[in-house]
């Protein structure tokens, strides 16, 4: 369910690419058309760096690198230099003893959960069925790491403490994805999180946070990052999802765990020769984006409320802003139209009005027919929007929606 993923737009839309009048544009042509529209839009709620051309991304990296490190120092080799500097910065930010850089979050979490399984003597991991390892990693926990999973709940929300206590079999690790992205970027309250962690401890389990988006959770909890991370035995964070980095992740925790994780990182093929571009981009994100996240979260509440007001004023019979209000700077919007129709309207709005209100729209096999959702991200660009701007953009968007353009 990534933004702008192929297959979400109407196969018959526009005249993209080299498709002739009687030909249907390919998924790649439709994707390129959407990217061109979003890049050229004068206004947007967010501009994901992944959508920028290679030249712009390289120029931004060069322009910002000198602000975060000494460019005359030697480049990293096998994890020293600027990579080690990033690891120290992350450990300090999270209040953990140590941190290790990984090329991917998938690898970081597999290593963390594998290490905990060996230490606890229990290879069972309790996690949500909508968590990233269960949905987006092709069964890697079991296939690659020999772990098995159990689910405290199947409800589209965070598990409760009682559900953790009531699991019918032992587990060595409880993994909590904060926020739970596929359920709508949802978080528990601080008190609920404390209770869930305590329930896992009662079961003699360790706690691991999938904190790919942990950076933006602090406003919801009303706590600083070290206090949040202190609830867990280990934490994984991502550098590209929120901070705008190129790639990469970090695993933070006790020194002994991180040393063991480094060994497994090597075995998994993650001991790359040089990673300074990713490390520099991560440091830039920590300097520039991390301090602004509270303002993004606050603005997301303004945007979500204005979206609801605009949809109500337009007479849309049913819609859903979820969660309401948003827990982070990202949330879901559900509308009673097909994904193709909504994606086409979003693209046309960017092309014709210069406003990129939404990116991709998606239908789900488990969802009702004729309903689609978009993941709304509020970034630096959205800080200039007023509630009136959002309501006006919603009205213009709905005027472009053609339900006849399909439902998937």
Q: Give the structural class.
A: alpha/beta
Biggest beta sheet summary: 7 strands, mixed
List the strand order in the largest sheet: 2-8-7-6-5-3-4
Q: What's the gyration radius in Å?
A: 22 Å
What would you call the quaternary organization?
single chain
Strand content: 5-15%
SSE topology string:
HEHHEHEHHEHEHEHHEEHHHEEHEEH
Question: Fraction of residues in helices?
Answer: 40-55%
Please tell me what the overall shape is: globular
Count the strands?
Answer: 12
Describe the structure.
The protein is α/β, with parallel strands linked by helices and 408 residues long. Helix content is 41%, strand content 12%. Strands 2-8-7-6-5-3-4 form a seven-stranded mixed β-sheet, with helices on both faces. The chain starts with 26 loop residues before the first helix and ends in a 9-residue tail after the last helix.
């Amino acid at each position: 369910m990534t933004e702008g993923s192929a297959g979400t737009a109407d196969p018959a839309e526009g005249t993209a690419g080299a498709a002739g009048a009687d030909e249907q544009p390919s998924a790649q042509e439709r994707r390129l058309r959407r990217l061109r529209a979003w890049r050229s839009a004068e206004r947007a709620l967010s501009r994901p760096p992944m959508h920028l051309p290679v030249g712009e991304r390289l120029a931004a990296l060069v322009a910002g690198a000198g602000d975060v490190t000494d460019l005359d120092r030697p480049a990293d080799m096998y994890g020293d230099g600027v990579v080690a500097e990033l690891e120290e910065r992350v450990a300090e930010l999270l209040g953990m003893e140590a941190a290790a850089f990984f090329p991917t979050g998938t690898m970081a979490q597999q290593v963390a959960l594998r290490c905990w399984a060996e230490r606890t003597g229990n290879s069972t991991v309790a996690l949500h069925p909508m968590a990233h390892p269960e949905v987006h990693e092709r069964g890697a926990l079991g296939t690659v790491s020999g772990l098995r999973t159990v689910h405290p709940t199947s409800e589209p929300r965070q598990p409760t403490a009682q559900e953790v206590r009531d699991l019918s079999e032992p587990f060595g690790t409880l993994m909590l994805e904060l926020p739970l992205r596929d359920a709508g970027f949802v978080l528990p309250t601080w008190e609920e999180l404390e209770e869930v962690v305590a329930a896992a401890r009662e079961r003699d389990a360790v706690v691991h946070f999938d904190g790919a988006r942990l950076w933006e959770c602090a406003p919801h909890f009303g706590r600083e990052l070290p206090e949040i991370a202190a609830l867990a035995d280990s934490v994984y964070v991502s550098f590209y999802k929120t901070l705008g980095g190129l790639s990469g992740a970090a695993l933070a925790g006790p020194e002994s765990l991180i040393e063991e994780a480094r060994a497994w990182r090597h075995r998994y093929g993650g001991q790359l020769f040089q990673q300074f571009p990713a490390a520099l981009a991560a440091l830039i994100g920590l300097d520039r984006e991390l301090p602004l996240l509270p303002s993004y979260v606050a603005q997301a509440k303004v945007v979500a409320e204005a979206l609801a007001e605009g949809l109500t004023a337009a007479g849309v019979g049913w819609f859903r802003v979820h969660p309401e209000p948003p827990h982070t700077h990202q949330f879901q919007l559900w509308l009673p139209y097909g994904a193709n129709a909504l994606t086409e309207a979003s693209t046309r709005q960017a092309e014709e009005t210069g406003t990129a209100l939404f990116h991709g729209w998606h239908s789900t096999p488990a969802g009702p027919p004729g309903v689609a959702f978009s993941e709304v991200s509020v970034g630096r660009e959205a800080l200039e929007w007023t509630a009136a701007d959002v309501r006006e953009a919603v009205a213009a968007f709905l005027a472009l929606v053609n339900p006849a353009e399909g439902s998937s």
